[in-house]
From TrEMBL:
GO molecular function: acyltransferase activity
Domain Beta-ketoacyl synthase-like N-terminal: 30-202
Source species: Acetobacter persici
Protein name according to UniProt: Beta-ketoacyl synthase-like N-terminal domain-containing protein
A Pfam family matched in the record: Ketoacyl-synt_2
InterPro entries given in the database record: Ketoacyl_synth_N, Thiolase-like
Organism superkingdom: Bacteria
Length: 263
């Protein structure tokens, strides 16, 4: 399956949006560890913005940057939102409340706890009726999300935004499901390979093999393994360098291969 990547976004430690992250991934700018502060979600009304959690704000910031770069209206795009952990902070808060005498769970906390909350906020913010899917595939949420997004883009012949994101989980759950850093990325994919864009992606899935490539940037190797969404780093690095080549990524069961060719 072949698509054109027309927009990219990434936010994580030392990676603040695609223009800056692209320079780091190319080796043109040193990587410096730092906190993640994505811009606020401009698509949400003030009341909805206050109700949304940090995970939703990260997902919407990623999607909006990628759409702006692609110069496409978000309301016209199909969407795939992929996340391994969901909003662990909200879930931890709810569990703490129900295990504490007299604890109460607010309706706002409850509706933010569901896995498709960021996707729901996205459709509300952009008044879109185009289908949006929310996926949770453990450590393989990025590759399964990419496979789903490319398939939707090609089969439905409609531009599609893929958004992948995860945050650390506080409390007892976070001691078992360890995620050390916040990270997220987004891609706007177009089905017409004659369209202008950043690069072409040729996606192939092999259920029989099991292999993946590491990110080449030495400072980002650890980051790749401290957040499920950061498994996207080898592909992001290949796109940033502007070099043609193939990236292999774990996609249980099997391997997802992405051949990158600059436009």
């Amino acid at each position: 399956m072949r698509v054109v990547v027309q927009g990219v976004s990434v936010w994580g430690p030392g990676l603040s949006g695609w223009p800056q992250a692209e320079r780091v991934l190319r080796g043109e700018e040193p990587w410096q560890d730092g906190s993640v502060t994505p811009p606020p979600a401009q698509c949400l009304p003030a009341n909805e913005r206050r109700r949304s959690g940090a995970l939703t704000r990260l997902a919407l910031a990623l999607a909006e940057e990628a759409c702006q770069q692609a110069a496409l209206q978000p309301s016209a795009l199909r969407g795939v939102f992929a996340c391994s952990n969901s909003d662990g902070a909200v879930v931890d808060s709810i569990l703490s409340a129900i295990t504490t005498e007299g604890g109460e769970v607010s309706p706002t906390q409850f509706h933010n706890s569901v896995h498709n909350a960021p996707a729901g906020y996205w459709t509300i913010g952009h008044h879109t009726h185009v289908p949006v899917v929310a996926l949770g595939c453990y450590d393989w949420s990025f590759t399964q999300g990419l496979l789903k997004a490319v398939a939707e883009c090609v089969v439905e012949k409609t531009p599609t935004v893929l958004v992948v994101y995860d945050l650390p989980i506080p409390g007892p759950i976070g001691k078992v499901r360890i995620t050390e850093n916040p990270f997220g990325c987004a891609f706007v994919l177009h089905p017409d390979i004659n369209q202008q864009g950043i690069c072409h992606l040729d996606i192939r899935y092999d259920a029989a093999s099991a292999q993946y490539d590491h990110v080449g940037h030495p400072d980002l190797v650890k980051l790749m393994h401290t957040n499920p969404a950061a498994m996207a780093l080898p592909l992001l690095e290949k796109i940033a360098t502007g070099e043609e080549g193939c990236v292999k990524m774990a996609c249980l069961p099997g391997t997802l291969s992405a051949t990158v060719k600059p436009c």
